[in-house]
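Same chain as my last thread, 496 residues:
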Amino acid sequence: MKKIKIFAMLLSLACASGFVACDNEDVVKQALQTPSVSDTFTDYQSLDFKWDAIANSIQYGYKLYGPDDMVVEAGVTKGTEVRFTGLKPASTYKLLVWAFAGLDTDYSTSPAAELTATTAALKKLAAPANLAVADNIATWDAVENADSYSYTISASEGGIVNSGNLTTTSVKISGLEDGDYTFSVKAVSSQGGFVPESDAATVTFQFKTSTPTFLWKATGTYYSYVLNKSWNATLFAYSDGTYSIPAFYGVEGYDLNFSVGTDGKLSILSGTYDYEDYYTVATGVASVGDIYVYVAAISLSGFDGSSAGGDLWMSYYDAGWANFYECDTFNWTSSTSGDTSLTIDDIVGSYSSYFQGYDGLGDEDNNDVDYEWYGAEISKVNESTVAISNLYWTGYPVNGVVDLDNKTITIAPQVCGNYTLASVEGVDQSVVATINGDGSIFLPHVAYWYCWDPDWYYYSDLNITLKKSSATRSAAKKSIKAIQKQPYKASGKAHR
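reply #2:
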């Protein structure tokens, strides 16, 4: 008993002096290994980081610091990688990553690993190459990844006199005074990862007004929305693709001069392009003043017509930018030819084709149609004959005899595959096309008669208008199906 008491006293002294570990003393824990971090992906707005898994860890903490040493993002993850998005291009970021241990383990949080990484810089579009101005037309090469192009025209003494945005790689220059100018164009991209605009390509050129040939004029009705009033006006058309309505608001000296781009948008040559998508145009009427014509949307401002008739429509804000009016209109239904002499060489060229009427041969499934396609070609056979290729199908050209005095092309009935091209009036009747003053060619009531039963059924009744076109798209091929439609499934239209 005495020995036991002595041992108990010695054990108490040992605990007090620290020679033996006791239950109430803090346990010393081992720190987890520091993660080894690497950057695995970088673009102009994103960074990816990855690290090896750390034994005995339950999750990982991270913080991303921006170039200003402020925390951009912080969090925890059980995985071993993290992606950051929405970052600034060409900027250096710092990442801290550490491993967490469980509470009831012999391990503690690891020291933080540190890694810096830099986002990619925005790519820069190439400046348009081979910029040139010839015959008052500016052209340049297409730029990879460009959505559109912006251009300015500056006078030699300084100051922008014209500007615009377009998706094509050419623009006709008009409406300038004779003299020296600088044309500048930039490639524009809305794609992510690119600087919005390229450096400018520039070229100096001399603008010389060419005297356009008067083609035709038409008297029609001009309606002013702001005045709620109509009056007679005259539209003049010229060979350079420009149009003019003198005194369009009834005041001498205040003309409306304009052109129409390949995209159908108006350019007001007698107005000033002072605002994005707006032209300032003076009317000469004191109560109206200037109007600000909106040209961005064809549905609100545009032009569609020829010497045979057509429409001009313009929507605009009033002088105080207080009211938006939809819209002024000018309509005409006939015209008078200009003093131009027609040659057969004037007819030769590429055309776009406008089809209206009944089409039972194409993909329209026996429906009335109203559509356009490109690729028709007119070539010269001799001084009185032309060949029209790709009129409806590729591979079936038809010949026509030209009467320059009467401005007609007579196309006698001709076989095209399983069909005969002729007038809807009969399989033995010619199609007589009219050459209009604006250079377009109108073919009325073109029929493709079914060769297997030519006395009764035909499969089309089309009005075709050919218009000169620089479009490079090839003609869409219309298929002549191997198994032709039977006569009783046709439209029911019959030989008259």
